[in-house]
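Revision sheet: structure tokens.
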Amino acid sequence: MLCIVLLTLMATGSEAKNPAASSPMFRIEGRVVDSNGFAVAGATVTVQGSTAGAITDAQGLFRLDVARGALLEISFLGYEPRKIAVNDGKPLTVTLAEQSQQVEDIVVIGYGVQKKESVLGAISQVGNDELVNSGTANITDAITGKLSGVTSIQTSGQPGNNDVKLYVRGVSSWNGSDPLVLVDGIERSFSDIDPNEVATISVLKDASATAVFGAKGANGVIIVTTRTGSVGKPKMNISLSYGLDFPTNLPGHVSSATTAALLNVALKNTQSFGSLIPQWQIDEYAHPSSLINTIRYPDTDWFDLTMRTCAQSVNANYNISGGSQRVKYFLSLGYNHEGSIFKDFSEWTAANFRYDRINYRSNFDFDITKSTRLSVKVGGVLGIRQTPTGASVSGLFNMMYSASPMMFPASYPSWMLEMIPDPDYPDASGERLASAKGSFYGNAKTSLSTGDFQQTTSNKLYTDLNFEQKLDFITKGLSAKVNVSLSTYHSRVSQQASSANPMYYIDWDAYDSGEGNPWVLSTLSDY
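Predicted:
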């Protein structure tokens, strides 16, 4: 996607003469401290009416060549600025007092920023601290419950495919109610952005807030603003978090004996007395009388068998920001890992759900002149998603919910071939995959044991160039902006594996009679 807007503006003006320019120059040295006498590093010292200036070092020291009668302006974020006239070369000690007033809250709106108390439209906003402290690396999930009027619905917990569906003030149309999403003024998805990269997220909800976007803003507008640097010494931040995702609302296990007893009740209600399960079989389901009968009369807890207690997630981020009066910067590098809630049954560790994501961003703001600014923003995402191709997350849950604990075993352990040899393969050994004979959805453990998987690698790169020219000499507050954006997307299958593993079921009539091979190779007709 390439958006280019070209606008050429020309302005002329006269340069005012500086009366101090003809005065003899001399060097002035000084130190900037706070009210407690501690050095203020990174403070800006400029000469009023001139481009000359300096930034204090780690000891708060600065040196400048100035003319007699020059006026120095000393400022630093969080402190009251000061002005000092210089008449001689004596060393200066400048004390800055901390600002007592709070910075006024501003809200990002459709056409810029505005003081919070002057906003008339329905706008909600969430900041960086709330997003980072949410405990999740998925930013669409991080804003859940933090913005009034915004409904979030998550339909999947699959790693790498768990984005939240967002609606602003409910569903407005059956043909689509997705809000318009703008990232730094460009229409694009924000679901894979690292929360550490975001400064604010604003949601414009009513007609007065979205009128500027036309029909696209009818379902609301989500404006994402990424972080930028500020004047001062470099500020580094390193964060590392480890999380555990626990499944909720899992059904309790109903034993095979209980299932059989309830089935008998249903059969009696339909007058099907000839199909009743005898009591001795119910007793075998409850307390198998032999090792073989633990397989013949299984009692399988599918959720306990196939699911872990919790899934692991790891989030790490390093970012640095800072800048001078001319150049401000913000750099960020992040990593996110999402593990699977399902156990590994295949010898291939890749045959399970997994998602790894690397985020990177560099935002630079260049103040070319006092009225001209150029912003260069580059952000990217590298995502690696692994999924077993035998079944999806929803398919596995369908198997576990629908499979009866008494219908078939999860698998045939290695000792089964020792107790019941296979005449067709007398040297066969090890565990065998169990067929889901008679089941509509299949065997969850068999699906996770086949070793089929697919790894998909995706790359996204976003490049934005923003040029702003203030036109206060025409009308105060007037400015012209030019935005150039390039978004590239690339996705490919980086690894793929498939295998044909045989599935079996045991013909217990053949086992009881001793005639024929009790091991039966499963086919599609068995389902």
